[in-house]
Design goal:
The complex is a heterodimer. Helix content of chain A is 36%, strand content 12%. Chain A is α/β, with parallel strands linked by helices. In chain B, helix 6 packs across helix 7 and helix 10 (334-371) crosses helix 13 (442-457). Classes of the chains: A alpha/beta, B alpha/beta.
């Protein structure tokens, strides 16, 4: 073990039998009176370390991460914008963090008033009639949405509608979700210009069509221009329209999914409303619905009644919504995330919502224009960028072996988190770049300089980035070994 | 403009580079008839001081009552270091570790977390988390269907002590794939399975066993595990991670051990926070790893041969497998896992056992105190972990209201869920479930007992 490895060893290697962070646990010396037959005989192998060791270990680990707070993080489709600190501070007030989810309404009015107002604001920004906050991530919001579409058709005795149309550019969660809801997936091709192929759509719809899942602007970074035609075709065939809200940031306050004809939407609050991504969650996937799907919303939903002019907040449960698709979480979803989104929306306010879309779009189009000028090929050069856009390196890969992966890793060495790579799947060697509205022109210019540097080194000087990155805590990792010699817990290798 | 850094000069230069005159021009691909000029109901912006004032007022409005509710979410002391570190920007504002070289902090943390959960549950492999305990049960059932194909069944049987909300959630998530969730008959004396009334011809795909049960009771899980395995069913253990510092690990249940363990991770350093964000954990036997949902981190080496960490077995996941993925889960509960890993590191095996023992002791103390009041008696004759079911001589709801008026949250009214249980569970009306963790002092417990005595001394007619 070299010096670096020793410093970065796991806590299990730092553990010494009998060492404890004593201040953290209650002082209990007596033996338990539980029956011996129920007790474990082995001692769980948790680390035995001091508080300082724990603090130092995890602080050091944190420093090995790229994050929004430390680096520009233009990860397409993830909306990695600044997470205001006030959202965390205020959602962490003891009155909120200490509240038991099953506590009485008498001790919940402050919390519930925030949740009710959040529902109202989300209805406003989506043009929907009802909102349920319970889904715990985008994918769970999708599950709720497709389940509601299915329940709607079933409620009309229309049990044959089990086909969900999904464009080939869609997030993997779309087809995976349709499958989880017991539906069949039918993929739709995309035109060379990035729109849904309308002729293919006409051919695909029919009596089995349950609905279509669309992201608009799409994962290709362009607005679906034929949305009105798509709406008409699917609706005429008896299907419903599902809006994947992954890219809602691009159109906030500019156009409402409800006006585009969508019946149901999920929102990724950790994207559009700036709650933290947390190294892989928690997210929050609130769903909004139009008139037809109101009875099917997942429970619970926050309600408000006025008595003598005073608002009283409560819950709508299965009893109030007997046709509901049911409950998706043990309690009411990721409440603390919802509080952060609430604080964010109150700070941004009505006018600020539009500015988010405007400056996110400005940043994306500026970056797109600059990279195109610098010689990068756009996947859709004749289109406006929405809040993100796709660059393809298929020419560079062919001519001088500079792949999307190479650019991603070379960017890390230059202090930038990589864009999303190899997604959407239908564009070869692609980078999906989303700068978000919270980045300055100067940051974007720095990123362009880094991209130009990588391109020119590869093209003009024959540099290879196959071994990049060089300046990270580790170099390129052996993924094949990781899968083949499975080592997923310390002390045991499969 | 809040959180937007552009100066007027920046904007002008950027528009010039794009070749657009106004920002509005950038939206010209959206059909004009769809565009709107303004939102209607989002209020005008507040600055940080104003929103801070608003949130303080609302947080204070909900008070700081003395909480004796459990029922799936537990108040434990959270060491200061847990959230001090978990909310460092490098953890808080990173995303899923797709770029492994730039995410070693998150990846190594998850690897250490996976190790800890395997140690606690006595199983071989852990994923990087699911949304919460309820949805974890749904995912475990779906995983059992994929892994236990030879059972040829979509019927999942639940021990009577499985949290009724977990069943509702499992139905909502997995019901559309044809899975059915049915309760096994209950022995009303001890809250466990009534072995006499078990259908010996049943062949379910899985049996879900919750220990401690939703009623706080502990049962002979070995017997039920063996019974399930004898019928070709998987055993899904639903466990409270705090209790595992003391109780037999699912991997050692019965002859062969549970196949999958899952549960609610909230007790490990995550605040109650009105129900979330929490995290669901899941571990399993090695041979089922390819059917596991969610992210898994593996340890490997880099180009120089140094140790590093990366997401592995991604071919199970939606971004690769799409329709054929093991689950649609993508984003999970990363930050809560970071907090739990720090929590478990600070406590260690002895510290966690101390939390478990203190919670058990306090609940026993509370139950003894309450059962000393006329009109209160225990419901089950069984060992309890840190929750206790009590039968009152009157409806529970008004009693809880009177306690709440004294800022005591007296527990969970089991009769709320009774209709969902079905008639085989017998009459659970007037049953209150109480919980006193290590956070409760003797004085807190005494105050609750005294308040309950005063309330129950009032005749029923007047208290209703």
């Amino acid at each position: 073990m070299n010096v670096q490895e020793k410093l970065d060893s796991t806590l299990f290697e730092q553990s010494r039998r009998g060492r404890r962070a004593f201040a953290q646990a209650p002082d209990v010396t007596e033996a338990t009176d539980l029956p011996q037959a129920l007790l474990r005989r082995d001692r769980p192998g948790l680390p035995e370390v001091s508080e300082l060791q724990v603090v130092r270990h995890f602080t050091r680990l944190s420093q090995k991460n790229f994050s929004i707070d430390t680096h520009f993080y233009p990860l397409g489709s993830c909306t990695m914008k600044y997470n205001p600190r006030a959202c965390n501070t205020l959602a962490s007030l003891p009155g909120f963090t200490g509240r038991h989810p099953l506590g009485p309404l008498s001790h919940a009015q402050g919390f519930l008033s925030c949740m009710w107002e959040l529902q109202e604001m989300l209805k406003d920004v989506t043009g929907m009639q009802g909102v349920s906050l319970t889904p715990m991530a985008g994918a769970q919001g999708e599950l709720a949405g497709v389940a509601m579409i299915r329940a709607y058709h079933d409620s009309r005795g229309d049990h044959e509608r089990r086909e969900i149309l999904v464009p080939d550019a869609a997030h993997g969660t779309n087809p995976a979700t349709a499958n989880m809801c017991g539906c069949k997936v039918r993929e739709l091709p995309t035109t060379a210009e990035g729109d849904v192929d309308i002729e293919a759509l006409k051919a695909a719809v029919g009596e089995h069509t349950a609905g279509i899942m669309l992201t608009n602007p799409s994962t290709l970074g362009v607005f679906e221009r034929d949305i009105i035609a798509v709406d008409r075709i699917v609706r005429d065939a008896g299907g419903l329209l599902y809006y994947d809200g992954a890219n809602l940031n691009a159109i906030l306050g500019k156009v409402l999914p409800g006006d585009m004809g969508f019946d149901v939407i999920h929102m990724n609050l950790h994207k559009t409303f700036s709650t933290p991504h947390g190294g892989g969650g928690p997210g929050s996937g609130a769903v909004g619905v139009g008139e037809r799907l109101l009875p099917f919303l997942p429970t619970p939903v926050v309600s408000r009644t006025l008595r003598d002019g005073e608002a009283h907040y409560g819950w709508l449960t299965e009893r109030d919504l007997p046709q509901s698709i049911g409950r998706l979480s043990g309690f009411m979803g990721n409440a603390g995330v919802l509080l952060r989104a609430y604080v964010y929306m109150r700070m941004v306010g009505r006018e600020g919502m539009r500015r988010i879309a405007e400056y996110a779009t400005l940043n994306a189009n500026y970056l797109q224009a600059r990279l195109q000028d610098a010689g990068f090929e756009l996947a859709f050069p004749n289109r406006r960028a929405s809040h993100e856009f796709v660059v393809t390196l298929k020419r560079e890969a062919r001519e001088f072996e500079l792949t999307a992966m190479d650019v991603a890793k070379a960017l890390l060495d230059r202090g930038y988190h990589a864009p999303t790579t190899y997604f959407p799947l239908l564009v070869p060697e692609c980078l999906l770049i989303e700068p978000t509205e919270t980045e300055s022109k100067q940051t974007l210019d720095g990123f362009v300089d880094a991209m130009i540097d990588i391109l020119s080194q590869a093209r003009d000087r024959g540099a290879s980035f196959k071994e990049a990155p060089h300046s990270m805590p580790v170099r390129r990792l052996d993924d094949v070994k990781a899968a083949r010699e499975l080592d997923v817990r310390f002390g045991k290798t499969a | 403009m809040p959180f937007i850094p552009h100066t007027e000069e920046d904007t002008a230069e950027m528009l010039a580079a794009i070749g657009a005159e106004r920002i509005e021009d950038l939206f010209d691909e959206i059909p004009a008839e769809l565009r709107i000029d303004s939102l209607e109901r989002v209020p005008k912006a507040l600055n940080e001081m104003e929103v801070s004032r608003l949130m303080h007022r609302r947080a204070q409005r909900d008070g700081a009552p003395s909480c004796f509710i459990g029922a799936g979410a537990y108040e434990h002391h959270i060491p200061a270091a847990v959230w001090e570190i978990a909310t460092r920007g490098e953890f808080y504002s990173a995303y899923t570790p797709y770029q492994a070289e730039a995410s070693q902090g998150t990846l190594q943390t998850i690897y250490e977390y996976q190790t800890m959960m395997c140690e606690l549950t006595g199983l071989d492999v852990s994923n990087a988390s699911l949304y919460d305990g309820a949805s974890a049960v749904a995912e475990a059932a779906l995983m059992a269907v994929r892994s236990n194909r030879k059972a040829g069944s979509r019927k999942v049987l639940l021990a009577p002590g499985v949290n009724p909300t977990y069943r509702k959630v499992a139905r909502a998530i997995a019901g559309n794939q044809g899975l059915e969730f049915e309760y096994l008959p209950m022995d009303t004396a001890d809250g466990g399975v009534d072995f006499e009334r078990l259908d010996q011809d049943t062949a379910p795909v899985a049996v879900v066993v919750q220990q401690p049960s939703f009623f706080g009771t502990l049962a002979d899980v070995d017997r039920l595990t063996d019974w399930a395995h004898d019928r070709g069913a998987f055993v899904v253990a639903v466990v409270n991670p705090t209790s595992l510092a003391l109780l037999k690990a699912p991997g050692h249940w019965g002859e062969a051990g549970a196949d999958i363990a899952c549960g609610e991770g909230q007790p490990l350093g995550v605040p109650l926070s009105s129900g979330g964000p929490y995290f669901g954990f899941m571990t399993c036997k090695q041979q089922h790893v390819r059917q596991m949902p969610g992210r898994i981190v593996g340890r490997t080496t880099d180009l120089d041969g140094n140790t590093g960490y990366a997401l592995t077995l991604q071919a199970r996941e939606q971004h690769i497998r799409r329709t054929k993925a093991t689950s649609n889960i993508c984003t999970n509960q990363g930050l809560m896992v970071t907090a739990a890993t720090i929590y478990l590191s600070l406590l260690g095996a002895d510290g966690l056992a101390a939390v478990a023992k203190a919670s058990h002791r306090n609940t026993a103390r509370l139950a003894r105190g309450l059962c000393g009041i006329a009109g209160v008696e225990p419901v089950f004759d069984a060992p309890h972990f840190h929750e206790f079911a009590l039968r009152l001589d009157r409806p529970v709801a008004p009693v809880l209201e009177m306690l709440a008026a004294r800022d005591i949250l007296g527990g969970y009214d089991l009769s709320i869920e009774y209709p969902e249980f079905g008639p085989e569970l017998g009459n659970l009306g007037h049953v209150l479930l109480v919980c006193a963790t290590e956070t409760k002092t003797d004085a807190d417990i005494e105050a609750y007992v005294t308040a309950m005595r005063e309330i129950l001394e009032t005749p029923v007619a007047q208290s209703a």
